[in-house]
Write a structure and sequence with these properties.
Helix content is about 10%, strand content about 35%. With about 1100 residues, it is mainly β. Strand 25 and strand 26 form a beta hairpin. It comes from Ceratopteris richardii.
């Protein structure tokens, strides 16, 4: 700090920034940004004070312009200082003294910012060193160099420290030069990345290139593509260019470069750049990793399933989409697919060579000498359509997977000489590839569709143990580890390894990134049984932290996995050990009965389930609360029979062998088969049966199919005494409620009326309501801030009564984004103040949706049928999506499928890939049987909790789609006791029910699995007898944690909260025929007029239910 202070006081600003750049960059965090801003602002003011206008303009354009993207108003105000004879005429700068005092004041401010900046921690005080420290380091270095000598002498002769030590060869032979990697120089130090100072291709004009960026930088001639900003900026990009495309990692909120105690010109209203920052208490800690939203209670600790595989399990992998589907490989070469929810083995494949004649002679000889084969690795492709199996002898098998038992042979690759030790999928150049490594010391890349070899990477001196492909923006690469402990990195080219360093333990090591791709870990075991779990620091090129807690001598190679960007897990000492990624000490240990010494383990994608191998050739599955809900949801799906109203069109489902789950992702290459027909029979009232799958994957009788189905008895509620309703208090002018949402915490309701005014009702904690959550038992308060202002949307040059409103709430309920035909406004939910406005119409915004992994990214549906992908932080539209013909009326993101689904007033649904923002599929709504589709009317979409099934709401129908294929699974159309047009609908919070409102005032509660109505609420329930028949709900909202509570926004401007009676506890009830279930026997319906878009099945019959 002393040197820094001296340079600041001397006004050597170039040296000040150069010195700072060794610790931080301008866009690293809000503290860094404020530090650089204060320095450049002072530099600018000093130029103005000297009347050096030319220099001031130069500083304004070159140094301060970078901050304009974050606060345009501030930049304009700074620019206006040029017009003043003395900048002290500006009120906020009136107390500016002379240069020396101003630098002193600024230095105090900088010290506060530096001390608060986490990047400067442990770097402000020079450490205390022992007098012998330098000698110790030299001795350690010389000892290490001596260990690397090919011909070490017992008494080495050390003559100089200017070059690396090397003992001369015996008998006077000429010594060979020290081994040197062509890119990274001398052999690395133990446990760390190689020093980049030896790199003969240093990146130009990049003073702080990271260890990985060193070999991915565009300055290096053998690297294709430009490195992303997060890995070190390309030399031709200035700071402004970096800020134009800032890093926005998943789940992160933006940062504010203002400090709370700044009294300088930065005192302005909150800029756009800060708009999406989540509110925190003043002086609270800075969140470095978004994973802190999880606690150790989120770990899957409770055993919920035990699966008996029958032979020792060697590898496991959960399906990336169907998160209860588990792939297993064994020591005898078998693979199996299990449905963890039902504990059923869906598919089983023993090892066999598919075409021995096509295999190499070496493989044929190996199989003849010793036919026993083990699975070394089995893995799903990222989309779950393929799976790969690496075996202990030569071969790799690739299967296509269509769901349940539909497992088909696709490719057999004679991949390596000897064992194939690992396998992974990757997408170089947007093409699905398989990466393998083996005993022949090579890594190979294969085309997943045709099996052609694309690359062979040679350079390891020992069998390659594992591979870890990864991507940093447009740079794709592969890490590989060998059993001699060497780790190498490869780009998809023929230029050789880019780095070469040693893994702790120097033996069997695997590597893995956190789910968001920002943190790199490795876990390995030495030959002596010592295990190491470490995190690598990519920016500094060494091991960031080493996790403790392993047994001194592990019995076998320790396996590990990561989850939720927060936790690490490893099997050791007959236990499962968990670590917080930010803490080297063991977080918790689980002792599950029957575990081996070093159990293998695997999380599912969302970390709610954990599969662990057992001693008795089985698998234990552990779950957290979310995992238990997930299993229950799939259990219900397995038990429930699908129903549909007899007037609805029957859905075609892609035909696979009997037993295919239509919800599982499949590719176009697999769909060249005939469609499957569902059949329906009228059951009770509005219920009808729909048969579209079997769940056990076992052969069925040829002529009949008998399934158990739950039959709902339709409850008709006509009086307020049959349920609980609450009309919310309101003293503001009444206007139609067009949008209605619960806060994420479930303690308040937010309504947007047709007059562009928001209303917020909050429930208070009390003895009768300890949780403070919304309830129909207690009246809430119509909340307003002390200022008394109303939260009102911009309505300049627009008629809000005719506009299409839209609204979206931030994850922590601190901000709401809203529009009513004018500009989009961002409001603070505590003060009701407008933080910023953007998106000046035309066109007007008609729908808003936050990106689930990045609060800075918003999808905005527009009146002109386009969708803008907008980055709030930089006030920039990243992409503009075109595919609809009329205004956008619905948007929904899926984390599981990594897609955005859009719907419009054109009755079309589009699927967009969120990684490249390209359209994948489009489908128009199908009209109900015998009815034309209305030419007007909005279409809305909402994802089920499984993030695969999609609820589609149109005035003419409710429908469930499989979003992975955009295929309709079920449809319900208004009829019988619910004949009116649908005004709105939504899933309950647990996705077990669908609440639908109708234009005649009725409300229907549907079973979400079958779309069978289970309850009807008449308008008299919430309006009273003899009420105005023209009043009806325009919008329905579901409580975020109470699955049986919903709220209605009505045309008369009132809001009603509705719940079942406490004695009932839920809506509707199931009939009790045949112990609560009834049998349906479904014969052929080839002549049925209800069949739509499909061909009949001849092995299915239709009879009336018995």
């Amino acid at each position: 700090m002393k040197y820094f202070e001296e340079q600041v006081q001397a006004g050597d600003w170039d040296e000040v920034e150069r010195y700072l750049s060794g610790f931080t960059k301008v866009d690293d965090n809000r503290y860094s940004m404020k530090i650089f801003f204060e320095i450049r602002k002072q530099k600018y003011l000093e130029a103005l004070d000297k009347q050096d206008r030319g220099k001031a303009v130069d500083i304004l354009v070159k140094d301060l312009k970078v901050f304009a993207s974050f606060n345009e108003e501030l930049y304009k105000e700074i620019t206006q200082l040029l017009t003043l004879e003395n900048f002290r005429e500006n009120e906020q700068l009136s107390k500016y003294g002379d240069t020396k005092s101003a630098r002193g004041i600024m230095l105090l401010e900088l010290k506060k910012l530096i001390e608060a900046n986490p990047l400067f921690r442990e770097k402000l005080i020079f450490p205390t060193l022992k007098a012998s420290r330098l000698r110790t380091l030299i001795n350690q270095s010389l000892n290490w160099q001596h260990q690397l000598c090919k011909n070490p002498r017992s008494n080495p002769d050390i003559k100089t420290l200017f070059v690396d030590h090397s003992c001369g060869p015996p008998n006077g032979a000429r010594a060979q030069p020290p081994p040197n990697n062509p890119l990274v120089g001398a052999l690395p130090k133990a446990g760390g990345f190689p020093p980049l100072t030896h790199n003969p291709f240093p990146p130009a004009a990049s003073p702080a290139v990271t260890a990985l960026a060193g070999w991915m930088n565009p300055a290096a001639p053998n690297v294709v593509g430009a490195g992303p900003a997060a890995l070190g900026a390309p030399p031709n990009l200035g700071a402004a260019a970096l800020l134009k495309r800032p890093r926005t990692p998943p789940n992160s909120s933006t940062v504010d470069y203002q400090s709370g105690d700044s009294e300088h010109i930065m005192k302005r209203s909150r800029p756009v750049s800060q708009a999406m920052e989540e509110v925190s208490y003043p002086g609270g800690p800075v969140t470095m990793h978004p994973s802190n939203m999880y606690s150790s209670e989120d770990l899957p600790k409770t055993p919920v399933r035990t699966l008996n595989q029958g032979s020792c399990v060697m590898s496991m992998d959960f399906h990336p989409v169907q998160q209860t589907i588990l792939l297993v490989g064994t020591n005898v070469g078998d693979i199996a697919i299990w449905d963890v929810a039902s504990k059923e083995r869906l598919a089983f494949k023993p090892f066999k060579v598919w075409d021995i004649g096509a295999c190499s002679a070496a493989m044929q000889n190996a199989m003849m000498k010793e036919p026993a084969v083990s699975v070394n690795r089995c893995m799903w492709s990222p989309d779950g359509n393929w799976l790969g199996v690496a075996f202990s002898k030569h071969v790799v098998h690739i299967y296509s997977y269509g769901g349940l038992s539909d497992l088909r042979e696709h490719l057999e690759i004679d991949a390596h000489s000897g064992g194939v030790n690992d396998l992974a999928f990757s997408h170089p150049n947007k093409q699905l590839c398989i990466i393998t490594c083996g005993d022949d010391k090579t890594i190979k890349v294969w085309d997943a569709l045709n099996g052609r070899r694309q690359y062979t990477f040679e350079g390891h001196e020992a069998p390659v143990y594992s591979v870890c492909p990864h991507q940093k923006e447009n740079i794709q690469f592969i890490f590989s580890t060998a059993i001699d402990g060497k780790i190498k990195a490869w780009l998809y080219d023929h230029m050789g390894s880019r780095v070469d360093y040693d893994a702790p333990g120097h033996w069997c090591t695997t590597m893995a990134y956190s789910a968001d791709g920002t943190r790199l870990f490795s876990c390995g075991t030495s030959k002596e049984g010592e295990s190491f779990l470490v995190e690598w620091n990519e920016s500094e090129g060494n091991i960031k932290r080493t996790y403790s807690g392993f047994r001194k001598r592990s019995l076998g190679v320790v396996q590990f996995d990561t989850t939720r960007n927060r936790f690490l897990a490893a099997g050791d000492e007959f236990h499962i050990k968990f670590w917080d990624m930010d803490n080297v000490n063991v977080l918790t240990t689980i002792e599950a009965e029957g575990l081996p010494a070093s159990p293998r383990l695997r999380f599912n994608k969302d970390g709610s389930l954990l599969a662990v191998t057992t001693n008795d050739n089985g698998i234990k599955v552990l779950a957290n609360a979310d995992g238990m809900r997930l299993l229950r949801a799939y259990e219900n799906r397995s038990e429930n029979r699908m129903f549909e109203s007899s007037g609805a069109a029957v859905e075609p489902v892609a035909s696979k062998p009997l037993g295919v789950n239509p919800m599982v992702t499949s590719t176009a290459a697999q769909s060249g088969v005939t469609d499957r027909v569902s059949t329906a029979a009228s059951m009770v009232g509005m219920a009808s049966a729909e048969s579209n799958r079997t769940l056990d994957g076992k052969p069925k009788m040829e002529d009949t199919m008998v399934e158990k189905v739950k039959v709902w008895k339709l409850s008709d509620i006509t009086d307020a005494s049959q349920c609980r309703t609450l009309k919310l208090p309101d003293n503001l002018p009444a206007s139609k409620v067009l949008r209605l949402i619960y806060t994420n915490a479930g303690v308040a309701l937010l309504a947007l009326s047709s007059n562009a005014v928001h209303k917020l009702w909050k429930w208070q904690r009390s003895d009768r309501n300890a949780s403070g959550k919304a309830t129909a038992s207690l009246s809430p308060q119509l909340w307003q801030p002390s200022s008394g202002i109303l939260m009102t949307n911009d309505i300049t040059d627009t008629n809000p009564e005719e506009a299409v409103p839209c609204i979206a709430l931030s994850k922590n309920d601190s901000y709401v984004m809203s529009a009513s035909g004018g500009k989009v406004s961002l409001f603070n939910m505590m003060t009701f103040k407008v933080m910023t406005t953007f998106m000046q119409p035309p066109p007007a915004a008609t729908f808003l949706a936050f990106h689930p992994q990045d609060n800075n990214i918003i999808a905005i549906g527009m009146e002109d049928s386009t969708i803008h992908i907008y980055n709030v932080r930089v006030d920039e539209v990243k992409s503009k999506l075109k595919g609809h013909q009329k205004r956008i009326s619905g948007l929904a993101f899926s984390n599981t499928l990594n897609v955005l689904v859009s719907s419009g007033a054109d009755a079309q649904i589009c699927i967009w890939a969120t990684d490249v923002w390209e359209k994948r599929r489009t489908k128009s709504l199908q009209p109900p049987a015998g009815r034309p589709l209305p030419t007007t009317g909005d279409t809305r979409v909402q994802f089920n909790n499984d993030q695969i099934r999609l609820l589609v709401v149109h005035e003419s129908q409710l429908a469930i789609y499989d979003a992975s294929k955009l295929e309709r699974i079920r449809q319900w159309v208004p009829r019988d006791s619910l004949p009116a047009s649908i005004s709105n609908a939504t899933y309950s919070c647990d996705s077990q029910l669908v609440y639908a409102s109708f234009c005649d005032g009725a409300v229907g509660v549907f079973d979400a699995e079958s779309l069978q109505p289970c309850c009807r609420l008449a308008p008299s329930v919430y309006l009273g007898l003899g009420s105005n028949s023209s009043v009806y709900p325009l919008v329905v909202a579901a409580h975020p944690s109470e699955p049986n509570q919903f709220a209605l926004g009505l045309t008369d401007g009132t809001v009603q909260v509705v719940e079942p009676l406490e004695s009932e506890g839920r809506w509707g009830s199931a009939s009790t025929s045949d112990n609560g279930m009834i049998k349906s026997i479904l014969p052929s319906m080839g002549s049925s007029s209800q069949v739509a878009e499909s061909t009949p099945r001849n092995d299915v019959k239709l009879e009336a239910p018995k």
